[in-house]
Amino acid sequence: MLVTLDTESATPPYEQIRTQVREAVQAGTLAPGAKLPPVRRLAQELGVAANTVARAYKELEADGVVETRGRNGTVVSPHGDVTTQAAQQAATAYVETVRHLGLPDKEARALIDAALGA
Questions:
Q1: Which CATH number fits domain 13-76: 1.10.730.10, 1.10.10.10, 4.10.230.10, 1.10.357.10?
Q2: What are the Cα distances from residue 1, in Å, to 36, 45, 92, 96, 117?
Q3: Neighbours of 36 (CB within 10 A)
Q4: CA angle 14, 16, 61 (to 5 degrees)
Q5: What are the residues whose beta carbons fall under 8 Å from the beta carbon of 4, sequence distance 6 or more?
Q6: How far is CA 93 from CA 38, 79, 99, 115, in A?
Q7: Residue 91: which residues within 8 A CB-CB, separation 6 or more?
Q8: Quick check: 85 pLDDT over 80?
Q9: Residue 102, Ramachandran bin (φ over 0: left; ψ between -120 and 50: alpha; else beta)
Q10: Which of 53, 75, 88, 95 could anchor a disulfide with 43, C-beta 3.0 to 4.6 Å?
Q11: What is the pLDDT of residues 18-29, one digit of tens each?
């Protein structure tokens, strides 16, 4: 099974699904173009509401991990490494923040170097 839920966990089921699918993609267990189970079928297998799975898939799509192709279902995105995409988004957000704060580029880079060295 692609996903297993821990009913004892404080983490909501949709987040458990989202995390496990993301990890499978990052590990290469789910290759680009791999088709995910339909929402209703996965919901039935996991014993959760279809809306729970739909929310996980929607958030995965917003993260760029999967693409929804209408009647063709939901597939792992073929657009590059998800980890690299997430890092690029984080870097962009960092640049926007330090510029908003008025920090010079040299100081912003020094903060990154210090964080990487920690």
A1: 1.10.10.10
A2: 11, 9, 36, 40, 39
A3: 24
A4: 60
A5: 20, 46
A6: 33, 20, 10, 16
A7: none
A8: no
A9: left
A10: 53
A11: 999 999 988 888
**Mean pLDDT, rounded, for 43-72:** 94
Distances (CA, A) of 53 to 18, 32, 49, 97: 9, 20, 7, 33
Altogether, the residues listed in the chain come to a count of: 118
- Dump pLDDT digits (tens) for 87-107: 778 888 999 999 999 999 999
CB contact at 8 A, 39 and 54: yes
Place of tokens 């799975």: 53
Q: Which residues contact 43 (CB under 8 A, 6 or more apart)?
A: 49, 50, 52, 53
User: What's the pTM value of the predicted model, to 2 decimals?
Assistant: 0.69
